[in-house]
Amino acid sequence: MVRPHRVTLVHMTSTSVSTASGKLRVSDAERESVAARLRDAAAEGRLTLAEADERQALAYAARVRDDLTPLTADLPPPSHPAPGHDRPLSGRARRRLGMHAVLVVVLAALLVTGWVLSAAPWFWPVWPLFWLALSLVVHYRRAERDWRQV
Predict the structure, then answer these.
(1) CA separation, residue 32 to residues 20, 23, 38, 79, 119 (Å)
(2) Fewer CB within 10 Å of terminal CB in the chain, N or C?
(3) For residue 132, which of 103, 104, 94, 90 has the smallest C-alpha distance?
(4) What is the per-residue pLDDT across 104-129, written as a single tens digit (0 to 9) for each?
(5) Could you tell me if residue 94 is left (phi over 0), alpha (psi between -120 and 50 degrees) or otherwise beta?
């Protein structure tokens, strides 16, 4: 008869956990993050295909953080995307953009109504509508972002 392996849990204080953070078990997300960095490094030409394959196999087999650290130690830190556009608009910016959008819709309705009532053979409001739409896009891109949320 095979006896199951017994695991003994040891009470650890917060200071012993912080000093032994390299011995903490890694999650699938951490493994995937390292594997993604390795794929990016291979795509940039920093690693050969054989090196990338070997390191990815080690990343997916890693059990603790100390197993992942040497896999990316000789790579530059990951680049971060340009800040700003991945954050939601602040409440004030949402209100202002909403008022801008309402104004654009009202002006667009007036322009189209003017065209319908006129005898113009071509759709002349296309140019003012283009500039109105462009103003909304620029407003959204330059709007204030809420930096408290991720």
Answers:
(1) 22, 18, 10, 17, 63
(2) N
(3) 104
(4) 999 999 999 999 999 888 999 999 99
(5) alpha
